[in-house]
Specification:
Elements (H helix, E strand, L loop, with lengths): L2 H15 L6 E2 L8 H8 L8 H23 L4 E2 L9 E4 L4 E4 L2 E3 L9 H6 L3 E8 L1 H10 L1 H4 L1 H14 L3 E8 L5 E7 L2 H19 L14 H4 L4 H5 L3
Parallel strand pairs: 1-4, 6-7
Antiparallel strand pairs: 2-5, 3-4, 5-6, 7-8
Helix pairs in contact: 1-3, 7-8
The protein binds iron/sulfur cluster.
């Protein structure tokens, strides 16, 4: 067996043996396909490539790095609470939860926006890493227009943690550029997707399968979905 195959097999083995989430995560609730969210909650096994797992792992490592850059620059950012746990929330008897990247309690006074940000109270911090093309789109058009799932994610975090502002950062993995965007709380979106979570839980309790995102198995989102076989071929 060549080294790549061996490493990949071990990576997949470890990934598949991990404890599965038994809650709907806020990070997934903006997914365009409700059925996919349902499958995740029901622990249906998605097909996943080792390279995708490596991308997730790289994202986690780079998040720590970006956090340190902000802290070193004087941001009062905390990524863990006093019990060394991630900040987060849990509701609906633990069936809807979220864990946030961090909370910013103060901004460097040299920044023009420092006083304004201070008046907002604690600010949610959410970080993503992106390839050059994806980062360029987000930097040009913003999170709402290009990464709606992330927009929903931070809205739910703000709603449940009672925050009204988010500082979103995106690191370009190819050029190391950073993009910053301030996202304000949008109560309507937060409510809509909180309701969606409740509807998904109800459907699962009633053994109902939620609608697919498309009628055609060749739809591009389905072709890239790890649940394709279970969804369209029932296996
Ligand atoms: S294959 Fe398509 S419809 Fe089925 S879960 Fe995935 S995205 Fe949704």
């Amino acid at each position: 067996m060549i080294i790549n195959e061996f490493i990949d097999s071990k990576l997949l083995e470890k990934y598949l043996s991990q404890e599965k989430r038994d809650y709907l995560g806020a990070s997934g609730l903006g997914d365009e396909c409700a059925r996919r969210i349902q499958y995740q909650y029901m622990h249906k096994e998605p097909k996943i490539k080792a390279t995708t797992i490596r991308t997730f792992d790289i994202g986690h490592c780079l998040e720590d790095l970006v956090a340190q850059w902000l802290i070193d620059a004087g941001f009062g950012l905390r990524t863990r609470d006093e019990n060394d746990q991630q900040f987060g929330f849990s509701t609906a008897n633990g069936k809807i939860s979220g864990h946030v990247d961090g909370i910013i309690f103060s901004f460097p006074k040299e920044l023009d926006c420092a006083a304004k940000m201070k008046s907002q109270g604690p600010v949610l911090w959410e970080n993503k890493t992106m390839n050059h093309r994806s980062w360029g789109e987000t930097a040009k058009h913003g999170v709402f227009a290009t990464k709606f799932q992330y927009y929903v994610q931070v809205q739910l975090y703000m709603a449940y943690l009672d925050l009204n502002t988010c500082l979103f950062t995106a690191l370009n993995k190819d050029t190391s550029e950073l993009y910053f965007e301030i996202i304000k709380f949008d109560a309507e979106t937060a409510q809509k997707y909180s309701d969606r979570a409740v509807d998904i839980l109800k459907a699962i309790e009633n053994n109902e399968l939620l609608p697919r995102v498309a009628m055609d198995p060749n739809f591009f989102i389905c072709k890239m979905c790890g649940f394709y076989d279970v969804c369209w071929n029932n296996n």
